[in-house]
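Provenance and format

Records in this collection were gathered into a single text stream. Each protein contributes a sequence line and a token line. The two records reproduced below are adjacent in the stream.
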Amino acid sequence: VEPRTRESTKILEGNYAAFATWFSGVFGHHYSDHLPTIAYLRSQVPSSYGFIFQDTKLARDVLQFLDRSFYDRVVCWVSSVDLFPLIWGCQRPLNFLRRWIQDTHPFAEPKREHRKVVFYSRSSPDAKHGRVLDPKQEEQVLQHIRDAMARHNRSERDVIVYTGVDKDGNTLPVAEQYNIFRAASTIIGPHGAGMLGNLMWADPTPGNCANRVQALEFIPGEDSKQVQGLYHSMHMRWRNWPVDFHVLLYTKESSKKRTHINLEDLDNALDAMWGEGASIV
């Protein structure tokens, strides 16, 4: 790496692999794009090599939680480097990430009553780019989910509303986010990194299709393409992760800042996911 100033020079001896990319420190891109590439590098680079990474709090926090021994191999954290990624994100590198998570955090099936239905709310300041579900409708959505849980005799005790922050507005530690999503049986909410980036903590090796975590993502359709790109979904990035993906389209009343869904469509979606003999869609 060519130093920008003489004072920034750090002499390294031995062999190293370096990874840098754009959107450094951005939650969604770090989880769905950067970590799969780092997982691939980890699988290919000899254990005697060190690593050079861009220095962000997010990168440090996630790697320390995911694999402390690998974190210790990062011998140089730099604020800015002129490098580009070997691979960009999803598909084949996700397989390496799945194996890495399974190695360092093996999945233990929680008791049925300890499983969680997680609803992702974009109501916190941490959520960027709008797409906040109308607050009044969000309360209705939560009630419809609870009603469907009762209708289908779900064993989960209640809906966990996940905003990514605690009651004081501080970002939840990685370990707490992991605990929420590792125990999730179903994840519901609008398109966003807080929901779909955390899919990586779901069971990476379910024994069969029926045991996959279910995800219901709210996305733009023809009547609501003003919200974001038409049919913009995380399914394209996470489609080889073992999750049963479903989508629900925003209604035409939605805008970039405030979104709405059809509650009857929500009921139909929940019945399709949770009903007796429900098919994998």
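Adjacent record:
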Amino acid sequence: MDAFRVAFSLFFFFVSTLGVAAKNPTVYTVAGVLSGADKQALFEGAVKRIGASDILPDGVLFNSTTILMSPNPIRSALSVCDNLIKSQVYAVVVSNIRGNKLSPASVSYTCGFYDIPVIGISARDTVFSDKNFHASFLRTLPPYSHQVDVWIKIVALFGWKAVIFLHTNDRDGRSVLGRLHNLAEKNNIEVEKSVEFELGVTNLTHSFLTEVREAKSRIILMYANDEDAEVIFRVAGSVNLTGVGYVWIVSEQALQVHNRPDGLLGLHLSHQEEQAHILDSVKVIAQALSEMYEFENITEPPNSCGESTWETGKIFYKYLIKQKLSRGRTGRISFDASGDRLDGDYEIINIQRGGRRVTVGTYTPSKEGKHESELKLKNETTIIWPGGSRDKPEGYVISTELKVVTIEDKPFMWVRKLNPGENCSAEQKEVFCPRPNSTFPAKNGKRLNSGAI
């Protein structure tokens, strides 16, 4: 009887699943908004090859349509409406034009309004992780903010216990700060100071770095784009903050500037080739479609920008971020809940004499364990530290100044005002207080400027 029930259950599941698949569309079109004609041809070829493979169910057609990315974000959005949505696309793969993050954002906004998933293959800005603005966006490469994960591993590996963090005062910078605090706490590392600077700063003064010079930690982490990094390096060098004893671990963008000081450590994301990401993204879409086709009732996407949101879009997005590629063209691929790629491969870069970029280590996904990565240095002695030193910096400085403070606490500590020209009484063993603060006794509501204790 039990065997009969099991057999009946399996039969019922098979029939119900077959019923779902039988009602689903048989033609699926995916789109590419890409940076060049060669990328368009590659995308179309990848879709054609997967359509002829056994990834998708029998009888399903896998089609493609593409447009060139426009540097004008408004024109990009209009092109999506006029050329892609009318083709009823199930997902859009979007590239980027170097230095222009507005066009990919406009594609994401437009498609997101209709819940059509967008896969980014070049955009790494943290804003794309914000689901309030980019609800249907995922990407096959990690955002810049994920560099913090590697920074903390480097700091922990060298045994440093405190860091200083320099960052922009925009959403990107504050997002990275939040991630840094979270990871630092888990690794028993103190963020001694975090210092903000304005995005696009051009007139940075020495006073900006006063907090850095007064800190005990000598480990400086910096999240900055190339333009801001150039200004900060110039000012930091003029006050000897890039000399012996300091450590600078900086964002990938900061490694690109011409005045980068010797001794920097930074990261370089491996596998950034657009061609490889196109191939991986198409495979991710095909896998997700295959799974959704089997288990969901799929509705067709909108065919104009005048229609309402796509009923199946949010469901498809969930299938997409569940996908994994163990051997993608860009390495192992999986996604977090925000659609950001996990398991990024990085090279650890050291800037050595003459501005040479030398790879001194790697950060790669572990062969064992879930979402774990391994940090490996080739040899610690190959690293050149700021000031040309080959000795690993201690990471902190011991202050040689002593500050003595006290408060009025009768009968143990008496305080009185000194009149002009009056000295402290040696007989009463009074000591002059040169820097009274707001707790110093006041007369008629006014703080006294000097006194004896």
